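Hey, resending since the last one bounced:
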Amino acid sequence: MATHRSEEAHDRVLRAALALFGERGIDATSMDAIAQSSGVSKATIYNHWPNKESLLMDVMLMVNGLARDPEDVDSGDLCRDLATVLSRRPPDQFDEARVRMMPAMIAYSAVHREFGEAWRHRVMEPSRVCLKRILRRGIKQKLLPAALDMDSAMALLLGPLLYGHIFHSEQAGGPFDFGRVAAESFWRAFGVNDRRLNPAKR
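The structure tokens again:
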């Protein structure tokens, strides 16, 4: 029971902080205000988060679906696995909150460079780890070139997602799936086993 109450309090703090960061901005939001809004004592909050930046980090990880490391993907189809990782989307329930938070987050990261670097690492690294694991599996299975450069591969796979994020490109029927297209284009360019050059039908 105590664990359940602790989890409830933890969630209330995160959601109160999210609302206040979006409404007031990050710098203008105090831990006192978060404690008052959440109904959780400041002492309890500091037991979980040593400072506001650690709480902000957890808030952003929550709304972007990054509170836990993504599970490994191994379907037996390397191209499909790449597309799965690249097409992962954050939770729909926080769509509005993310839109409201991002301007404040960008402004805060520009001023607080160390936090900005930590945030970019936490956002990008889980996907990079998954992608590298898949690529190394492909190299081991001789489905990708042994001399494949990982940094170049990351740029080719993740670049289209950045483009899509910046320009919000859409097509009829919903958002364009840059993840799937990036995976299939990469596979056509680098796949070395003729049996696997054609991406699996979806």
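Residues 169-174, 194-202 have pLDDT under 50 and may be disordered.

Sorry for the duplicate.
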